[in-house]
Design the sequence.
DNA sequence: ATTCCACAGGAAGCGACGGCCC
DNA sequence: GGGCCGTCGCTTCCTGTGGAAT
């Protein structure tokens, strides 16, 4: 008992270089969003009519991950809530992430629950939920619905239809829709009608460049770490890395946080070397995550390749720069025997080739076609990451 | 030049599954 | 709730390709 308490106390009282770790978390929404002033005003303009009980415009927001789409919209919603208090406007809003609520029913359920928080909607049809929501809006409320990752909704056409139809059927009150997505091609798949209602206005968020990322990181670092515990060099390096990776601020923050953790365990300020190590660590986290979500047979194929790459074989060749490569035929044999020992039915060779293509697309392996010097027309496979790490990740998944 | 090898990847088809329609 | 249709994941079959062996 005593020991346990002491460990807790020790952990708590241990000196740390962090001032407030939350500021560095990807979920944190800062009050100030640098380089997004234009976007903020545009979003505000679209929904401003709501404050004078008029119908707001629907809006579609597009941009790659980590460019501040969600942060901007959440920020605007907060401002909207503040302002409505002041003007006593009858305005409501809800933010939903469609990865969690990915059907028409689930979205409508959240809307109904928002409309009548004390009621239970267990076992009710989506029509009923919809009616309940309309009843609420019909009292003269202007309601803003934000659907983040809107491309994840399975029956989006039906959902947008319901929500826009609400406007036609109501004498008082309006519904405004804001859709957020990181894939622009997805809207081409939409029914033309939902496309035209949803995309009344569009905003495209551009990726951040290295200087902008640097400024963002600096601002966060100033609040996340204790004074003087982050070097400018570290910040510049982290932003440079992230700028290469499609200007993703979330990635930049992840790097900084990881570098912070590494430095913290040594009680040293965050310097460039920690950022470098953080990049490797973050990269590894991402790869492990990727392997964890791989379909069963793809992970077995990967494991088989790692196995062969590790222990080598008679067919194994070396490229000019001395790296190990495998023949696809032999990799298939390895996969087959692995399946046998794990008592799993192996897929056909044809499908195996398809798996190879997918693994290559995910960057877990690289392949090249055999040139002169090798009999036949085959692919040479090379693992993109150290075999031990790949094997460990697969084993963890399989256990 | 011809045949053989060791595959790549397209085409067709098959069974299971999910959604939709009456 | 049963019939139908589209799609997914997969197998089987097949033609193509590029270099090696003869």
Sequence:
């Amino acid at each position: 008992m005593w020991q346990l308490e002491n460990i807790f106390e020790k952990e708590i009282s241990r000196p740390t270089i962090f001032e407030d770790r939350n500021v560095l978390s990807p979920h944190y929404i800062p009050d100030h969003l640098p380089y997004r002033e234009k976007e903020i005003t545009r979003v505000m303009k679209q929904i401003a009519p709501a404050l004078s009980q008029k119908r707001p415009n629907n809006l579609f927001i597009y941009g790659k991950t980590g460019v501040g789409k969600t942060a901007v919209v959440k920020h605007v919603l907060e401002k909207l809530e503040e302002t409505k208090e002041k003007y006593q406007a009858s305005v409501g809003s809800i933010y939903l992430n469609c990865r969690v609520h990915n059907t028409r029913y689930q979205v409508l359920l959240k809307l109904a629950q928002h409309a009548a928080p004390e009621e239970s909607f267990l076992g009710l049809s989506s029509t009923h939920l919809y009616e309940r929501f309309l009843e609420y809006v019909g009292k003269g409320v202007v309601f803003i619905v934000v659907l983040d990752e809107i491309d994840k909704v399975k029956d989006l056409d039906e959902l947008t239809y319901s929500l826009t139809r609400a406007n036609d059927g109501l004498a008082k009150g309006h519904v405004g829709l804001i859709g957020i997505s990181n894939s622009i091609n997805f809207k081409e798949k939409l029914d033309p009608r939902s496309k035209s209602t949803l995309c009344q206005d569009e905003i495209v968020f551009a990726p951040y460049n290295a200087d902008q990322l640097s400024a963002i990181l600096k601002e966060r670092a100033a609040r996340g770490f204790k004074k003087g515990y982050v070097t400018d060099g570290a910040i510049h390096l982290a932003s440079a890395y992230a700028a290469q990776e499609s200007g993703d601020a979330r990635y930049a923050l992840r790097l900084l946080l990881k570098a912070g953790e590494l430095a913290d365990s040594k009680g040293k300020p965050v310097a460039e070397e920690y950022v470098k190590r953080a990049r490797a660590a973050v990269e590894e986290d991402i790869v492990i995550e990727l392997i964890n979500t791989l379909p069963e047979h793809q992970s077995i194929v990967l494991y088989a390749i790692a196995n062969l790459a590790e222990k080598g074989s008679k067919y194994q060749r070396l490229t000019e720069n001395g790296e190990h490569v495998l023949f696809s035929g032999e990799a298939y044999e390895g996969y087959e025997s692995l399946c046998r020992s794990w008592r799993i039915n192996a897929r056909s060779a044809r499908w195996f080739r398809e798996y190879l293509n997918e693994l290559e697309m995910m960057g877990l392996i690289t392949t090249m076609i055999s040139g002169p010097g090798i009999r036949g027309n085959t692919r040479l496979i090379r693992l993109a990451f150290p075999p031990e790490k790949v094997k460990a990740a697969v084993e963890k998944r399989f256990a």
Remarks:
- The mean pLDDT of chain A is 86.
- The two ends of chain A are 34 Å apart (CA to CA).
- Chain A has three domains: 37-205, 209-291, 294-398.
- The first strand of chain A starts at residue 59 and ends at 63.
